[in-house]
Each structure stands twice: as C-alpha cells, then as structure tokens.
TrEMBL record:
Positions of transmembrane segments: none
Organism this protein belongs to: Paracoccus kondratievae
Record carries keyword Electron transport: no
GO molecular function: FAD binding; hydrolase activity; quinone binding; sulfide:quinone oxidoreductase activity
Residue ranges occupied by any Beta-lactamase hydrolase-like protein phosphatase-like domain in the UniProt entry: 2-110
Domain FAD/NAD(P)-binding: 151-263
Name of this chain's protein: TIGR01244 family phosphatase
NCBIfam families reported for this sequence: TIGR01244 family sulfur transferase (TIGR01244)
Coiled-coil stretches noted in the UniProt entry, renumbered to this chain: none
Domain of life from the UniProt record: Bacteria
Residues in the signal sequence: none
Keyword terms: FAD, Flavoprotein, Oxidoreductase, Quinone, Transit peptide
Gene Ontology biological-process annotations: sulfide oxidation, using sulfide:quinone oxidoreductase
Length: 558
C-alpha cells in the first residue's frame, strides 16, 4: 500500500486489500473511503471484502465509487460531506490515489486558496495542476491547448491496443504513437479457462504492461474520461488533454458484476466463482477439485459477451474432471443460458451436444441470472421463454460459475462515438468510425457483428493498421475485416472443438479439414490451445507478427 499524507487527518492510497486494514487501524486511522468502483480490474478485491475487514479492525468504511477521470461536482460534494461526517483520521483510496486526491482537492475549492490545494497534493507526490485549471474554467476542460499530442493515439492497452500499435510500428517505424491505459498488468485472458480447469497457473497469464508496449510507442498511464472528436481531443484523468491526428479506440469491455444482485459480496466465497477474473479462476479449480457431490451451476448472460463459449468451456472441463475422479454420478450439472441456443454457429452444436450428454448436463435456456444469495447458496433466475409468461425460479447450488453481464465501458457509452446501444459505431469491414473519418475502433468495444474474442482482435489489428497508414498517405481504405473469430471449446482435458467463423456464421477454418476438422473434438486443437496459442499471443500478435492474420485487401484496393 502506497499511502500519501495530504494533511493531518487525511491521506490517500492506491488499492487496499483486506490484510491492510488492521495496520491502518494501528496507525490511528478511523475511517476509509473507497473511490474505486468494484470490478474495475481483474485482480481487485470488492468493497464488501474491504468493508468486512474494516469492521473487524474497528474502522468505518464508505463506498463512493468514481469512474476513472470522471470526478463530477456531485462526487466532490459527496466526498466533502463524507469527510465532515466520518470520524478521522480518514484514508481514501482508488487505483493509484489520483481520484481520491482529486475529490479532496475539489472538495476544498472555495475553502482555501487553489495554490495551497495544489501545493499540499504536490508535496504528497500527486499533481493536481489539472484540477486548478478545471476550477479556473468553471468546471469545464478547455481543449484549445493540449498536454500531449501524437500522430496516432490508441485508447486501450489490451490485446487489441498493443497488437494494433505493433502492427502500425512495423508498417511505419517513425510514426508518432501514444497509447493510453492506466493498467500496469496485462493479462492473457484466454488462458483463464485453463487456469479454472487446473491446466495453467494464473501467474503464467500475466505480464507487466511496460514489457509489452512496443518500442517507440509512448505510454500515457492514465484513464480516459471523455472524447471531444470535434477538437480531435481525448480528455484523461486530472483533466489533461491529449490531441491526435488519428484515433484508435479499443478499451475492451466492462464486466458488469453489479447487475446481479448480491454477486459482488460473495465472489470468491460460498462456492461462487468465475473464470472471467484473474483472481477467481484458481478458485474455480479449487471448487471443482474439491466437489464430490451436489449441484454445480454454470451461467451465461444475454449477448454480447466476450468469448461466448467460455461459460460452457468451464462446464465441460469441470464435468471431465468429475468424470475422471469417478464422482460425476453424484453431481448434478446445470447450464443456465439467457439465450436460446447452445452455440450460435450450428455446425459445432452436434459435437457439443455429445459432451452435454456425456456429462449429463441439464440445459436450461432463457434463464438469466439476476441475484445470488452466497451464504444461502441460492441463485435466482428470470425465465423468459418465447410464448410463455415470464417467471422467476430459484436453484440451490454447491458451486456456481458465473459469467457476468457485459457492456461497453461507461466513458464509451456516454461519448459521441457510441451507437444507440453504447458500442463504438464502425463500418464492419474497414472498422472506421461511421461519423468521424479519423477514428477507428477494434476489439470488444465495436458494434461490428462479430464474436468478441482475442482471435478477432488478432485479425482486426492488421486491418486497422493498413487503413490508418493508407489514410496517412492520402489514400482510401485498403483492407477489410471478414468478421473472423475463434472459440476453442475445451470439451475435455486433451480435446477441443475449434470453432472458427466469420460474419453470418460462415466457417473460416485456418487449416485444411484433413489436418484439423474444427467441427469435431481433436487433440491437435488442444495442442494448439495449450502449447501454441500462448506464445503466438505474446511473441507474435503483440509484436506485430501477423501469422495467419494478413489483412484481406478491399476489392477496390486490389
């Protein structure tokens, strides 16, 4: 914990963990304020865990979440009231302390000179000069001047962002590129299914962001608050402005854990787990390897979600583990799917149904998880079957694997870049924004009708890179994306159904059928998933080496 003392009686810090609370109490603190929304990062403990540890240590805890870079006047007022109401000394925390210090600074506005506010935060190692500018402009952020500028600005340092940065650098090595992302750790998320299946260790799926940013690309470690496309500007935290000639938007998708009542309070406890989080995937395997009887539930929310096969991958690997352990006959498996089909591309369903029957799994379609009582081990589902009255059902469980609802990030949904559903509005072939010619998007955040997978981003990155370079050279779009996505469905340990498809469900196999028939389970596909794809991800995709991902030319560009 990196604690920064702002003044007597108030300090800020980065992310707290439950084990930190007794030490804070021993240092004399009496209250903590959480300014970080739950579910912001894969390795972040929820506020409920912090609140329980705080209570045990004799501290009061308050939840005042603020989205990165989006400190509103109302947030500052609520923070000022909290400082007045809570017993001091008080420690406020977020990811790095910046949001908490910004809230304190704005809460002090009008009560003390701006210079004093900036001086105290600066002495604590936190630069609030951007707050001073915001106050001086009546709460508005001016975009007529910039704190930084780049030829190409990339928002998002996940698989899509780093891959497109690397592809751009390979095509034009002297291109001035800035990448904006606050995270310090990058995760190979496709590996979490195998962590939950006891095949990979979680640590092998994580690397530092600094080790992956392509050489020559400036990394701006900040969160995006807003876009101002009329002025070619991105507003980042502390009200700073980054200007661009061309913008690429790929911040990924938001896991909306809070939409399911009671879920956040019980994640990682009471048999409730999810392979969609780095810290929980090992708990999945702990539950699977320890379960000898009872009911195991696997859920899938309404689409869109990233890697739509992941919820059932967890079910298949768990069923296989119980079959091998000789306890499958004592375990009732239920798959609760908010949709109406097992998998969206029908060619792969027969092979998957063979495994559904092998594990004697119950398929329950149109069942949407809406609430969980962790201590009571009870899950609540809304059921909306076509032609039937809506109803609500409950299921007891001994373990439950939850796939959370998923939406575009808040700062995307609130922006001028979004369509009516909140996703970045792009042409599905060129991935160029429909209204802003100098903006492109790729990855999970676009509204292109493709599967949201890392494999899709691997194919999209070269397309965007080709089209951005063509635009820089004064040419029209040069490449097109065909909707390719891949979902290696881990149906048992050692075998995979390798689903590869494009727009409209058209099959897009990477290998000849005689070598690898993706519609049938195979050991070759397992070898690809376990042994080949991780190094391809780290050493090829994120370094601009476009193995099996060369962009397809537009017909007019041939």
């Amino acid at each position: 914990m990196d604690r920064r003392q702002i003044e007597p009686g108030f300090a800020v810090s980065g992310q707290l963990f439950p084990q930190d609370l007794p030490g804070l109490a021993a240092q004399g603190f009496r209250s903590v304020i959480c300014n970080r929304p739950d579910g912001e990062a894969a390795d972040q403990p929820g506020f409920q865990a912090i609140a329980q540890a705080a209570a045990a240590a004799g501290l009061q805890a308050l939840y005042l979440p603020v989205q990165p870079g989006m400190v509103r006047d109302a947030d500052a007022a609520a923070f000022a009231k909290a400082l007045s109401d809570l017993p001091g000394p008080v420690l406020a925390y977020c990811r790095t302390g910046i949001r908490s210090a910004s809230l304190w600074s704005l809460a002090q506005a009008g009560q003390r000179p701006i210079a004093q506010i900036v001086e105290r935060t600066k002495a604590a190692g936190l630069d609030m000069s951007g707050i001073a500018r915001r106050i001086a402009h009546g709460g508005r952020t001016p975009t007529d001047s910039a704190d930084a500028h780049a030829d190409v600005v990339i928002v998002g340092g996940g698989a899509a962002g780093i891959a497109v940065a690397a592809s751009l650098r390979r095509r034009m090595p002297d291109l001035d590129i800035a990448l904006i992302d606050p995270a310090e750790v990058h995760y190979y998320q496709p590996g979490w299914t195998l962590v939950g299946g006891g095949v990979f260790r979680a640590a092998t799926t994580a690397r530092t962001m600094a080790s992956l940013i392509p050489r020559g690309v400036r990394w701006i470690r900040a969160a995006v608050a807003a876009f101002d496309p009329a002025n070619d500007a991105v507003i980042i935290d502390a009200c700073r402005v980054v200007r661009y000639d061309r913008l690429i938007v790929c911040p990924g998708i938001k896991l909306d854990w809070g939409r399911i009542e009671g879920l956040e309070a019980t994640l990682g406890l009471n048999g409730v787990t999810s392979n969609y989080r780095y810290d929980l995937a090992p708990y999945t395997w702990e539950l699977v390897s320890g379960l000898r009887s009872g009911r195991a539930i696997f859920t899938q929310p309404p689409m869109p979600i990233k890697c739509a096969g992941a919820p059932q991958k967890a079910m298949y690997l768990s069923g296989d583990a119980w079959l091998r352990a000789g306890v499958l006959g004592n375990i009732r498996i239920e798959f609760m799917n908010a949709g109406g089909v097992l998998f969206g591309v029908k060619d792969y369903v027969p092979a998957l149904m063979d495994y559904v029957r092998r594990y004697d799994a119950g398929l329950n379609f149109f069942h949407d998880l809406v609430a969980i009582d962790g201590p009571g081990r009870r899950a609540v589902f809304d059921v909306a079957e076509p032609g039937q009255p809506a109803r609500r059902v409950e299921r007891d469980f001994d373990m439950i694997h939850v796939c959370p609802p998923q939406v575009a990030p808040d700062f995307i949904r609130a922006s001028a870049l979004a369509d009516a559903a909140g996703w970045v509005d792009v042409d599905q072939a060129t991935l160029r924004h429909k209204a802003h010619d100098n903006i492109w998007s790729l990855g999970d955040v676009t509204n292109a009708p493709n599967a949201k997978t890392a494999a899709a981003a691997r194919k999209q990155a070269p397309v965007v890179a080709e089209n951005v370079i063509a635009d820089i050279r004064g040419q029209g779009p040069a490449a097109q994306y065909d909707g390719y996505g891949s979902c290696p469905l881990t149906v048992e340990r050692g075998k995979i159904v390798l689903a590869e498809f494009g727009y409209g469900g058209a099959l897009k196999p990477s290998f000849p059928k005689a070598l690898l028939d993706g519609t049938r389970p195979s050991r070759a596909a397992w070898f690809l998933k376990e042994r080949m794809l991780p190094p391809i991800y780290w050493q090829a995709m994120l370094r601009g080496r476009e193995w099996l991902a060369r962009p397809e030319k537009l017909p007019t560009a041939r």
